[in-house]
Design brief:
The structure holds two protein chains of two kinds. By secondary structure, chain A is of the alpha/beta class. Chain A is built from five helices and seven strands. In chain B, a hairpin with a 5-residue loop joins β6 and β7. The chains are: A alpha/beta, B mainly beta.
């Protein structure tokens, strides 16, 4: 009689420990700025009409077969502009292999701050040597569509148009976060 | 009373919460203060015949100097906060930015906007507070 009870207790303890471990892992993942725990899902189609560094408004559909890295940023954000050299590096390394970087320039303040001004965005692109396409997201529609919360944020979309990785926060050439995004890009390019 | 807007989506942040208790300004020699959010607070003091408003970031947060905080006043005018004290990279305020509101005011009303950056997360976010 004692043995089944002991086994039951053991099973309960194991189940509890398992649940605790799962919850701990879930929380750790949810708090990791490099790995948002929202899961893979189809990337929503954006509809921005004002674009720079491209001769036509880019549509998500036309990027099928490409790996797409979205960077939500604004030129008034130091964390964002500090990250740009890494993104420019990704563009140079992987554009020919099928990576398309897309900047989504989303202002923080109303127009009086100058972030909505196309000329100011153009000057920022030149200043930071950004050659990849950028959309002006002045109404924050794409920001909201993707559920973004911070500047800068990143969304990596695979060749089938599925969001595979999301994260946020400044990173620098060859630091740990850079290496992680680099590894993710290479993994998706190889699929 | 004010509400934090940090950590929300822009749509959430746009749902501003009115300041129930308007800021009262001490017109004596001492400063009065009111919490603005968990990340910033406003201090008010006399500046001759006018009222000085000073934004102070909570420990661990920085105020973005590239996007000077703004107070949108009910009459449609705009007050921008500024400080000559910047970090060496000019990205953040090294001293609390302030703005002078013409006249003495028992209450301050308007919409306060600031870009708050958290060095621990290396991100910026908007704070919007209705005063």
């Amino acid at each position: 009689m004692a043995r089944p009870t002991a086994l039951l207790l053991l099973a309960l303890v194991s189940a509890g420990a398992g649940a605790l471990a799962l919850e701990t892992a879930r929380r750790a993942q949810a708090q990791n700025p490099l790995t948002l725990a929202r899961g893979a899902r189809p990337a929503p189609a954006w509809s921005n009409t004002s674009w720079l560094n491209t001769d036509h408004p880019l549509a998500l559909d036309e990027l099928r077969g490409k790996v797409v890295l979205l960077n939500f940023w604004v030129f008034t954000c130091h964390n964002c502009t500090n990250t740009v050299p890494s993104l420019v590096d990704f563009d140079h390394q992987y554009r020919d292999q099928g990576l398309t970087l897309v900047g989504i320039h989303t202002p923080e303040f109303p127009p009086y701050a100058g972030e909505h001004d196309r000329g100011n965005v153009e000057r920022a692109l030149a200043r930071y040597h950004i050659e990849y396409p950028n959309a002006q997201d002045n109404d924050a529609r794409t920001w909201n569509l993707y559920g973004i919360r911070f500047w800068p944020s990143f969304v990596l979309i695979d060749k089938r148009g599925v969001i595979r990785y999301e994260g946020y926060g400044e990173f620098h050439l060859h630091d740990a976060s850079y290496r992680l995004w680099d590894e993710r890009i290479r993994r998706l390019l190889a699929e | 009373m004010v509400r934090r807007m940090m950590g929300m989506t822009r749509a959430d942040a746009a749902v501003r919460v009115a300041l129930v208790a308007a800021l009262s300004i001490g017109m004596g020699s001492s400063c009065s203060r009111a919490d603005a959010t968990g990340a910033i607070r406003i201090e008010t003091s006399r500046a001759g015949p006018d009222t000085r408003l000073t934004l102070v970031a909570a420990p661990g947060f920085k105020l973005n100097a590239r996007l000077k905080p703004a107070l949108e006043l009910p009459d449609g005018s705009l007050l921008r906060f500024d400080s000559p004290l910047l970090t060496p990279d000019s990205a953040y305020f090294a001293g609390p930015p302030s703005a002078v509101l013409s006249g003495r005011h028992g209450r301050v009303r308007g919409t306060l906007r600031a870009s708050i950056c958290d060095p621990r997360e290396a991100v910026c976010r908007s704070v919007i507070v209705d005063l």
